[in-house]
Design brief:
This protein is of the alpha/beta class. The chain contains eleven helices and eight strands. An eight-stranded parallel sheet has the order 2-1-3-8-7-4-5-6, with helices on both faces. Keywords: Arginine metabolism, Hydrolase, Manganese, Metal-binding, Urea cycle.
């Protein structure tokens, strides 16, 4: 057996698949709409931990990321860079700690700029990582191409080695060096892609499955093709960064950049079920739930969708939970 392969086998053999560590990131400075910072609290308050414990999971809540913004120099067309830099640095360190504790990391956002910290921490801890970015948007802009200057539209460009030369020096971000190849990233659910992002996708041959592809191939084949592209040998540690706006607004209306024509909740659950079956999922981000958007029913629908997605990623089966050994041999009248 090759030394590199032995290292990977040891890495996954040592990891427990029933242990989860939760991080809250009440952060909204990567975009301009108030309310998304409340995402972690409202998801927890809806009973997330109890729902996960029903699955037989060992759940530890590591609390929220609390940071102090650093004084940084200005960078043209990047809003709140000091806040982004400080928050994601601490988040990266926390992700590394949870992975060292042999737990799968569940990060509750907050806006999608937090992906900078979660993926950086995952790559630093596990080295060989493949990322499934489930989103209506590609988040591939730089400060030179973004129309808004919102950093939540830039994390993939910040994380990937192939795009590192497209950036100026970013004060406060010296801790973060791109270590992820764009070949290890696949998109599912795209339907709002800027012309520059389209150019980057084509230039680098990025695995990008938009809603047109989901309709053509079906969600099962789409997720299978995405995994084959980014992890053909089935050895990488998997990271799913899930923006709730990948769902159609009819399924998840309480989000800041909703785009019609998205994934159904059923399709999103199937994505997560398939990822769970790989036994290599080590980090999940759920981002962009904004309880300030929409009425009470809208918020309820969106939070329920987020929890269903998390449950599917962590082992809930629509076929029913597996029963303990020995029970299948017991007569049915025992349960009356």
């Amino acid at each position: 057996m090759l030394p590199q392969f032995r290292t990977i086998v040891r890495m996954f053999s040592a990891r427990s698949y029933n242990k989860v560590g939760i991080i809250g990131v009440p952060f909204e400075k990567g975009q301009r709409k108030k309310g998304v910072a409340l995402g972690p609290k409202i998801i927890r308050d809806t009973g997330l931990i109890k729902e996960l414990e029903v699955l037989g999971l060992d759940v530890r809540d590591y609390g929220d990321i609390i940071y102090e913004a650093q004084g940084t120099g200005n960078v043209n067309n990047m809003t709140h860079l000091g806040d982004v830099a400080a928050c994601t640095k601490l988040l990266s360190e926390q992700v590394q700690q949870i992975l060292q504790d042999s737990r799968c990391v569940l990060t509750l956002g907050g806006d999608h700029s937090l992906g900078i910290g979660t993926i950086d921490g995952h790559v630093k801890a596990m080295k060989d990582v493949a990322v499934l970015w489930v989103d209506a948007h590609a988040d591939l802009n730089t400060n030179k191409t973004s129309e808004s200057g919102n950093v939540h539209g830039m994390p993939v460009a910040l994380l990937t080695t192939e795009l590192s030369d497209y950036w100026p020096h970013l004060p406060g971000m010296d801790w973060q060096k791109p270590m992820l190849s764009i070949r290890n990233v696949a998109y599912i659910g795209l339907r709002s892609v800027d012309s520059y992002e389209r150019l980057v996708i084509e230039k680098f041959g990025i695995s990008a499955f938009g809603m047109e592809d989901v309709e053509r191939f079906g969600i099962h084949n789409t997720i299978s093709m995405a995994l084959d592209k980014i992890d053909p040998e089935g050895l990488k540690s998997l990271h799913v960064s899930f923006d709730i706006d990948s769902l159609d607004p009819l399924e998840a209306p309480s989000t800041g950049t909703a785009v019609r024509g998205g994934l159904t909740l059923r399709e999103a659950i199937h994505i997560m079920e398939e990822i769970h079956r790989t036994r290599r999922l080590n980090a999940i981000d759920i981002v962009e739930v904004n309880p300030y958007i929409g009425d009470q029913r809208d918020v309820k629908l969106t939070i329920e969708a987020a929890i269903y997605i998390i449950q599917a990623a962590l082992g809930y089966s629509r076929r029913g939970l597996k029963v303990p050994k020995g029970i299948t041999d017991m007569p049915l009248q025992t349960f009356r």
